[in-house]
């Protein structure tokens, strides 16, 4: 992954997966599992190597409708029963968006409602009609979602720059995380194929 030098993957309050030929955790936690939502009928993916910043990196190439189920093991915080304060970071490349949308996060592990973090048809990132920034198709980017359900804020970053902010979140509400959640899941086919190099989740809402 791209995290070398940034943080120890064995640090407390952190879960990470680096897609180096498997779905195992690089921080000692649970492995990811794959699943499928329409239009896929079964998970589709391959292991490959991609050039990121001029260096070769192991990545997972996943088909449209394939999602990854994350069991993060970070428990709950923020005075609730769910993970209310967290930062999710993805090193990601979305080559195309067949419906215009690319689902990034689905907090409902049953995938029976709308996803909770998207790239929209204008290449902006966000949710609930509040989108910003630009995520170029076919380029490696580092996307970060910083959620603080106690402070009420939801912030999206593209390569470290604030792109979007939403307010009005509630403790243990829609944008909090239970013990499991989905990456790239959505209930009504607003999904896209992609390449993923690294995923990191921290049990705190990081500052800018």
Could you please describe the fold and organization of this structure?
The protein is mainly beta. Helices cover 0% and strands 41% of the residues. The protein contains no helices and 15 strands. Strands 1, 3, 4, 6, 11, 12, 13 and 15 form an eight-stranded antiparallel β-sheet that branches. A hairpin with a 2-residue loop joins strand 12 and strand 13. The relative contact order is 0.25. The N terminus is likely disordered.
Short description:
With 208 residues, the chain is an all-beta fold. 0% of the residues lie in helices and 41% in strands.
Topology of helices and strands:
Layout: E1 14-17, E2 33-36, E3 45-52, E4 55-62, E5 66-71, E6 85-93, E7 102-106, E8 117-119, E9 125-127, E10 130-132, E11 141-148, E12 153-158, E13 161-166, E14 180-183, E15 194-202
Antiparallel strand pairs: 1-15, 2-5, 3-4, 4-15, 5-14, 6-11, 6-15, 7-8, 7-14, 8-9, 9-10, 11-12, 12-13
Please give a handful of descriptors for the protein shown.
about 210 residues; mainly beta; 8-stranded antiparallel β-sheet; 7-stranded antiparallel β-sheet
């Amino acid at each position: 992954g791209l995290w070398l030098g940034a943080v120890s993957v064995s640090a407390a309050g952190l879960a990470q997966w680096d897609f180096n030929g498997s779905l195992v955790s690089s921080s000692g936690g649970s492995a990811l599992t794959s699943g499928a939502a329409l239009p896929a009928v079964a998970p589709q993916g391959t292991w490959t190597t991609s050039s990121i910043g001029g260096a070769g990196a192991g990545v997972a190439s996943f088909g449209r409708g394939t999602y990854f189920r994350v069991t993060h093991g970070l428990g709950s915080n923020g005075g609730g029963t769910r993970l209310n304060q967290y930062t999710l970071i993805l090193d990601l490349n979305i080559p195309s968006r067949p419906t215009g949308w690319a689902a990034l996060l689905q907090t409902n592990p049953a995938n029976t409602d709308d996803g909770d973090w998207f790239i929209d048809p204008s290449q902006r990132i966000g949710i609930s009609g509040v989108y910003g920034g630009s995520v170029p198709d076919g380029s490696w980017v580092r996307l970060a979602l910083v959620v603080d359900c106690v402070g009420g804020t939801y912030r999206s970053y593209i390569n470290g720059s604030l792109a979007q902010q939403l307010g009005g979140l509630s403790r243990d509400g829609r944008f909090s995380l239970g013990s499991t959640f989905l990456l790239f899941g959505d209930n009504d086919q607003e999904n896209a194929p992609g390449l993923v190099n690294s995923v990191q989740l921290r049990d705190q809402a990081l500052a800018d």
